[in-house]
Write a structure and sequence with these properties.
Helix content: 25-40%
CATH class of the largest domain: Alpha Beta
Shape: globular
Mean pLDDT: 94
Largest sheet: 7 strands, mixed
Number of domains: 2
Oligomer: single chain
Number of strands: 18
Strand order of the largest sheet: 2-1-3-4-5-6-7
CATH superfamily of the largest domain: Aldolase class I
Distance between the termini: 48 Å
CATH architecture of the largest domain: Alpha-Beta Barrel
CATH topology of the largest domain: TIM Barrel
Number of helices: 18
Length: about 450
């Protein structure tokens, strides 16, 4: 079957659609003829769509939605209206079935389908569901029982149960379907994935909604093979796309050992998202020996009570240890905070900033307000709240308080709406775009730190 895949993400700096790269590989391995339209590079999306679909009819068209919004309460830019407009433009030029997918879609599939007036989507792994869907459509067979599908049934949407396919069953990833060289040139990094799913119980997190709670591991050799393909394209600055690279720690260690064994530690530099626990001095050393240059720990808070409220499974002492061991090993460290969640107080904010200063990370990202995603525990607790929640007890003073606590400490990346020059939201960040154009490469927080 001829299958078209469309990247709808037009953010700047541009982020390569790794999921689309993976899905194209899987469709091709199953015998489909795959063509890709990357709207990231098109100044006029409707015109590009018209040109692309003027060719012979496709049997299936897949649209990927990477993000529903920028996740920042201070900006609140949604990408859903643009996604719906793209779906409308495609529907005007084809009678082929249109299927939505991607991490952003998988967080709230029914809402996205309804907004874009689409009948069909894949939540979760597209690499397994989409080839089977294409095969059934081509054979004119019923596809409505396939796992991971969301489809219109009358006036409602039916969400089929998910399947947790082994990631060892993925085909070898050539990383050739997307123009990764251009993304590296204009976006400064490339992503790679070592696992999917997270068993964590963080009350706000949508990652388990999109990727499942069961941790599924990619074989370290398959990860290393993929990294080799990227290195062959001249791409040597990378970032993990895992929720937490070090969960479980033994798998992270095996991936590092495989990179070291192949002799690539000096040829590439990479960054990772990690949890402060379980994290050890030995793993920090292994990551650095494998070429890791920096770690972003999502710590959310430095207050013990707030960490318990958020159902994080680490303590302030774990944060201090993780930073110390990482810096001892020679890696830069970023700590990400999520402040003003339910139960936040003036005292907890003060304790958090004090702990961040004590930890002495290279950078601390300060986000105020929690994005409420449907299906998360926090959203269930606060069903009548808007998309973002800021604890009412601190809302009147949270920005000026943080501004006074942080002062001129350059370790903190803090966007107070009254100081737009401090914006560190990566979406449409002109300072970041300019730095990449000047040759900076790596994690965005590290680029901002260095320039």
């Amino acid at each position: 079957m001829r299958v078209a895949l469309v990247n709808t993400n037009r953010m700047r700096p541009p982020i390569a659609p790794i999921g689309l790269d993976y899905v194209a590989e899987a469709l091709h391995a199953a015998g489909n003829a795959v063509e890709l339209l990357d709207l990231c590079w098109e100044p006029d999306a409707p015109a590009a769509i018209a040109r692309f679909l003027a060719r012979p009819e496709f049997g299936l068209i897949g649209l990927t939605l990477r993000n529903t919004d920028d996740c920042a309460s201070t900006c609140r830019q949604s990408f859903l209206a643009e996604f719906a407009a793209i779906a409308d433009a495609i529907r005007a030029h084809t009678g082929a079935p249109i299927v939505a997918g991607g991490v952003g879609f998988s967080v709230m599939p029914e809402a996205v389908l309804a907004l874009a007036n689409l009948d069909l989507g894949v939540w979760g792994d597209g690499e397994f569901a989409l080839p089977e869907l294409a095969a059934r459509i081509e054979k004119n067979e019923d596809w409505r029982d396939l796992p991971n599908l969301v489809w219109r049934r009358g006036a409602e949407y039916q969400r089929n149960p998910p399947a947790a396919w082994p990631l060892a069953d993925l085909p070898a990833m050539s990383r050739s379907w997307v123009d990764n060289r251009r993304y590296f040139r204009e976006g400064g990094q490339a992503g790679f994935e070592t696992k999917r799913g997270c068993p964590g119980r963080c009350v706000y997190c949508a990652d388990p909604l999109a990727k499942g709670r069961q941790t599924r591991l990619r074989p370290p050799a398959a990860v290393a093979d993929e990294l080799e393909r990227l290195l062959q394209q001249g791409i040597d600055r990378l970032h993990t796309c895992d929720g937490e690279f070090n969960l479980p720690p033994w798998h992270a260690d095996e991936v590092c050992r495989e990179i070291i064994r192949r002799g690539w530690a000096d040829r590439m530099r990479w960054y990772a998202y990690c949890s402060p626990a379980p994290f050890t001095r030995d793993l920090a050393r292994a990551m650095r020996q494998a070429g890791c240059m920096g770690i972003n720990f999502g710590v959310d808070s430095g207050d013990p009570e707030m960490l318990m409220r958020l159902q994080r499974d680490f303590a302030p002492a774990d944060i201090l240890n993780a930073v110390r061991w990482s810096k001892e090993a020679g890696m830069a460290v970023m700590l990400d905070l999520l402040l003003a969640s339910p139960g936040e107080t003036r005292e907890s904010l003060v304790r958090t900033v004090d702990l961040m200063k004590q930890a002495d990370a290279d950078r601390v990202g300060v986000s105020v307000g929690v994005r409420l995603y449907p299906g998360t525990e926090l959203s269930a607790r606060l069903p009548s709240q808007p998309d973002f929640f800021i604890e009412p007890a601190v809302a009147p003073f949270v920005f000026p308080l943080l501004d006074s606590l942080i002062g001129g400490d350059r370790r903190f990346l803090f966007f107070d709406p009254s100081h737009p020059d401090r914006n560190y939201n990566y979406n449409a960040n002109q300072r970041l775009i300019d730095a990449i154009a000047q040759g900076h490469r790596g994690a965005y927080w590290d680029i901002l730190r260095r320039c």
